[in-house]
Design a protein that fits this description.
By secondary structure, the protein is mainly alpha-helical. The protein is built from one helix and no strands. The protein has one helix at residues 3-58. The longest helix has 56 residues, at 3-58. The protein is rod-shaped and about 85 Å long.
């Protein structure tokens, strides 16, 4: 076995691992971003409900 073959295989292995980690972090960031927007929508709706309940108390 030639030393060049070993180096080539190591480089390809590192590139493969890099692609796997890249895809993992891409999917993770997409999922995390969509959860944050859902929480913001829920928070806005809860704020509206709280405002309405406070107005009813004052009346």
């Amino acid at each position: 076995m030639n030393i060049g073959d070993v180096v080539y295989q190591l480089i390809m292995f590192i590139i493969l691992l890099g692609m796997i980690f890249g895809i993992y972090y891409l999917v993770r960031s997409i999922v995390k971003g969509s959860k944050n927007s859902n929480f913001k929508n829920i928070e806005q709706k809860l704020d509206k409900i709280i405002d309405l309940l406070e107005k009813e108390k004052k009346e």
